[in-house]
User: Fold this.
Amino acid sequence: MADIERSWLTNPARRQAMARLAGLMAASPVAAAMAQPDPRPLSEHHRFLSLAEMQTSFDFEPVFFGNVILPIYDYTAHGDGSEFTLRRNRQAYDWVDILPSRAAVPASQVDLSSELLGVKMKFPIIVAPTAAMVPLNPDGEIGMFKAATAASNTLMMLSVNTSTPHAKVVPAAPGGTLWAQFYPLENLANTQKSMDTFQNAGCNGIIVTIDQQASYYERTQQDRNLGGRGMPGGGRGLGGGAAASGGSARYRINGFRLWYTWQYIDEVRKMVKGPLILKGILEPEDAKLAIEHGADAIIVSNHGGRSMDYGPSTLEVLPEIVAAVNGRIPVLFDSGIRRGADMFKALALGANAVMIGRTTRWGLAAFGTAGAQRLIEMLQQELVQVAAAAGCARLSDINKTTVRTHLV
Assistant:
């Protein structure tokens, strides 16, 4: 075979041409019988619901699915390993009963306002940090911050893996409060640079995430569709030219994790001028150590089931962590929240505030800024309705006497 023929066989342009030919053949009626069926057939529905027709957070999810490419959906939807922890997070809410009150109060009389580390909150709800929002919707992180601020000045935490620089997000919603999330870096000089970037942009609260120690998303683009263009984190698949992983990465071990130490937290504490929050506490002893090492608040979180498979649900461990903290610092809570009733249960078991991540992404991807705002407001009002039915006129009324637990 001539050299020019060998070159032609391996030329990227040829591969692209073959891919286009395959696509053309797949679209042909001749190949229809062999084509992969639609994974979400809408045989019983003629259209998606409009924003005005959204009734619960779950209504946003199928619209989100229809609006984005599969790798973006998978990145949001899935969890670590077999996804046992992802499922358990949701199941745990079924193990807590809300006790109806004989002295229910009108919803109009419910006031759930509070203050968290100097931030006044009308509702004990926070938008959790989640990565790369522009692939969800062009409004991106700016749209989410605008939505949070418009929804009764809801506090938002911005992911370190933001697709929009902090300095551009902060001024987008005057009067809003934006804190910054951060993954530990062993190099302290680089850590200091990150802290300076966040704080100079106006993010005075810093959230150090320690709950995602060794995760691997088995249902990512490589396992489901070998695609990945547009994936948060720069995933590359067919034709992407990604180099083969070497060393421990061949066995799905991330070298950026599993080294965290309390001494590192001591160093970060010196760099943070405002509140320091540690995200990912699942053990009472770690909660106590967090206080000893300068944390102003902790977040009980397993990263929405993305950090370690076969771990406990956050709702299961919340009461013992609250007991260990004993009111010394605020205890925030996330993972698995989909309804106002879920929020109520976490608050009743001792959380000072709750955080929502996947659900806000559903809202943003489905309808942009307006969708995210409506979803947050919907959950706020659901929480008010549950509190009213349980006879809780104030946030302090929501306590363990308002629920019955059957945690396993």
The two ends are 68 Å apart (CA to CA). The longest strand covers residues 276-281.
